[in-house]
Amino acid sequence: MEREILTISQVADYLQISEMTTYKLVQEGKIPGFKVGRHWRVKKADLAEFIEKQKNGERI
């Protein structure tokens, strides 16, 4: 079963950027995320939407 919710580490791996950069982007709301306890999570659909916006030239 494919995961629908990703950790910061999984998002960083997927985007091939550092975890620190990913964490910063999520904290700033540039990548939509939510907290479960003290840990950030990102919905795969939200990440796909973020990627599409980037491809269409929208700045983060």
UniProtKB/TrEMBL annotation:
One function term, GO molecular function aspect: DNA binding
Signal peptide bounds: none
Pfam families named in the record: HTH_17
Domain Helix-turn-helix, residue spans: 6-54
NCBIfam families: excise
Protein name, as recorded: Helix-turn-helix domain-containing protein
Annotated source species: Exobacillus caeni
